[in-house]
């Protein structure tokens, strides 16, 4: 069982380009999440999905979009990347809503926007 | 509003020393959940413990122990006889009842020297 996989592992991107970070889980978890991790700020929630077909905004959603077409995949898209989106991005999943279950995290994607 | 404070930015100890990582939280919810995660140098986030607000019993798992005190809104983490492999960033996190968001502290970097 792989758990959560993220791709790419790292990416350098020119400002203004479009980028999609991929996240796939094989645990049949209902809920999935995207976080960004920045030095001194900890992890901040970007978007989440309680179940396939639904999404919601987190603490820092601006400049990002997500979709949840099926249970396993939860891609994060940067429509037009800016340098402030340089960060490490973590995908996570839980069986159900976070208040009743534990989130498990993927290995992360390190994104640099120049 | 919910908030998690990890006042210790960085702690350095010598192997075999005991070390306590502090976590103070704020929430208006009467039902809530507290978590600790470990982020080793490899970067992944590893779940350590989940505790609900109605269970104030301290928990011990090997060299790890957790002290939950509602009276002081704290959920501190102690490593006994620290080892070099304990070197990591440790995050405390909070989720309220029936919410979709996990609020992280800014993390404490622990360095254990041989």
Outline the biggest β-sheet of chain B: 6 strands, mixed
Q: In total, how many beta strands of chain B?
A: 12
**Multimeric state:** heterodimer
Radius of gyration of chain B (CA) equals 14 Å
Question: What's the overall geometry of chain A?
Answer: globular
Q: Spans of chain A of 5+ residues with little confidence (pLDDT < 50)?
A: none
Helical region count of chain A? 0
SS class of chain A? mainly beta
Major sheet description of chain A: 7 strands, mixed
What do the pLDDT scores of chain B average to? 92
Distance between the termini of chain B: 41 Å
Q: What portion of the residues of chain B fall into strands of 2 or more residues?
A: over 45%
Characterize this entry briefly.
The complex is a heterodimer of chains A (114) and B (114). Chain A is an all-beta fold and 114 residues long.
List the SSEs and their pairings.
The complex is a heterodimer of chains A (about 110) and B (about 110).
Chain A: E1 4-7, E2 10-13, E3 19-25, E4 31-38, E5 42-49, E6 56-57, E7 64-66, E8 76-78, E9 87-94, E10 104-105, E11 109-113
Parallel strand pairs in A: 2-11
Antiparallel strand pairs in A: 1-3, 3-8, 4-5, 4-9, 5-6, 7-8, 9-10, 9-11
Chain B: E1 3-5, E2 10-14, E3 19-21, E4 24-26, E5 32-39, E6 46-52, E7 59-61, E8 64-69, E9 74-79, E10 88-96, E11 103-104, E12 108-113
How would you characterize this protein structure?
The complex is a heterodimer of chains A (114) and B (114). Chain A is an all-beta fold. Chain A contains no helices and eleven strands. Chain A has strands spanning 4-7, 10-13, 19-25, 31-38, 42-49, 56-57, 64-66, 76-78, 87-94, 104-105, 109-113. In chain A, the strands form two sheets. In chain A, strands 2, 4, 5, 6, 9, 10 and 11 form a seven-stranded mixed beta sheet that branches. In chain A, strands 1-3-8-7 form a four-stranded antiparallel beta sheet, with no helix packed on it. The mean pLDDT of chain A is 93. Chain B has strands spanning 3-5, 10-14, 19-21, 24-26, 32-39, 46-52, 59-61, 64-69, 74-79, 88-96, 103-104, 108-113. The N and C termini of chain B lie far apart (41 Å). In chain B, 0% of the residues lie in helices and 54% in strands. The mean pLDDT of chain B is 92. In chain B, the strands form three sheets. In chain B, strands 2, 5, 6, 10, 11 and 12 form a six-stranded mixed beta sheet that branches. Chain B has a four-stranded antiparallel beta sheet with strand order 3-9-8-7, with no helix packed on it. In chain B, strands 1-4 form a two-stranded antiparallel ribbon. Chain B has 114 residues and is mostly beta strands. Classes of the chains: A mainly beta (114), B mainly beta (114). Chains A and B meet through β5, β9 and β10 of A and β5 and β10 of B.
């Amino acid at each position: 069982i792989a758990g959560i996989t993220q791709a790419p592992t790292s990416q350098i991107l020119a400002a203004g380009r479009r980028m999609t970070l991929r996240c796939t889980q094989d645990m049949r978890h209902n809920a999935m999440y995207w976080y960004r991790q920045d030095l001194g700020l900890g992890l901040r929630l970007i978007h989440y999905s309680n179940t396939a077909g639904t999404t919601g905004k987190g603490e820092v959603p601006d400049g990002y979009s997500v979709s949840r077409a099926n249970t396993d995949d939860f891609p994060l898209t940067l429509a037009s990347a800016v340098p402030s989106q340089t960060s490490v991005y973590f995908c996570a999943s839980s069986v159900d809503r976070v208040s009743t279950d534990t989130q498990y995290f993927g290995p992360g994607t390190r994104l640099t926007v120049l | 509003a919910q908030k998690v404070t990890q006042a210790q930015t960085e702690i350095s100890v010598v192997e075999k020393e005991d070390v306590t990582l502090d976590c103070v939280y704020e929430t208006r919810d009467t039902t809530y959940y507290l978590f600790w995660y470990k982020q080793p140098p490899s970067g992944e986030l590893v779940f350590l413990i989940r505790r609900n607000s109605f269970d104030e019993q301290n928990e011990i798992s090997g060299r790890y122990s957790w002290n939950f005190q509602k009276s002081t809104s704290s959920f501190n983490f102690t490593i006994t006889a620290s080892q070099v492999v304990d070197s990591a960033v440790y995050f405390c996190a909070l989720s309220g009842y029936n919410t979709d968001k996990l609020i992280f502290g800014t993390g404490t970097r622990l360095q254990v020297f041989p």
